[in-house]
Amino acid sequence: MASETLRPVDLFIVDDDARMREALSVVFTLAGYGVSVFPDAERFLAATRTRAPDCVLLDLHLPDKSGVAVLKELDAHSYPAPIFIVTGDGDISSAVEAVKNGAFDYLVKPLDARAIVARVGGAIAAYAERNGKKATRPTGLLIFPVELSLRRANVRFSHRSREALPTRKWAGGSASAHAR
User: Fold this and answer.
1) Among the listed ranges 18-32, 34-48, 67-81, 160-174, which one has the minimum average pLDDT value?
2) pLDDT beyond 60 at 126
3) How far is residue 174 from each of residues 45, 88, 89, 148, 153, measured CA to CA in Å?
4) How many independent structural domains does the chain possess?
5) 102: in domain
6) β-strands 146-149, 154-157: how paired?
């Protein structure tokens, strides 16, 4: 049996809030995902022209375009990866509009770290199965040493999680909010 080359599961996070991007990046990096972050729709769309992610977390309200406009531009119904719309101020009409325009799911902040990682993993597996491919799996920690409230992107790390990401900058027990 030939050995397979494992590649990280590639997740794109699109959010104009630097703290939210950083918090989600930390959570998914700990879970073993390869993470790319984008502060606006234009940079994200430029990246999708050269590289297709395995999943996208897309903020509904971006400074340059709405998440729904991005779904339409990507033709999300036929996009090769699940796209989650994430928002802090969700309502039924925007949820319906997002799903009608191809969003896989609509998530309202605050987000639970374990739950969102599980939902993203399930969505990636569902897309792989639907397309007759073997699902890629992240290779990271399955148990999070992280307490996370993504309402205001407050993150507290245990001692063990600081060791898990030695290249990150840590200040006072919180992830730094440096822009990517």
Assistant:
1) 160-174
2) yes
3) 30, 21, 25, 11, 10
4) 1
5) yes
6) antiparallel
DSSP E strand stretches across the chain = 9-14, 33-38, 55-59, 83-87, 105-108, 146-149, 154-157, 170-171, 174-175
Write down the residue that tokens 């972050």 correspond to. 37
What per-residue confidence (pLDDT) applies to 8?
A: 74
**130 vs 163, which has greater pLDDT?**
130
Is the distance from CB of 22 to CB of 176 less than 8 angstroms? Answer: yes
Report field, pTM of the whole predicted structure over 0.90: no
Q: Nearest Cα to 83, choosing from 159, 2, 12? A: 12
Q: Which domain holds residue 40?
A: 9-134+141-175
Give me the residue label for tokens 């971006």: 62
CB 155 within 8 A of CB 23: yes
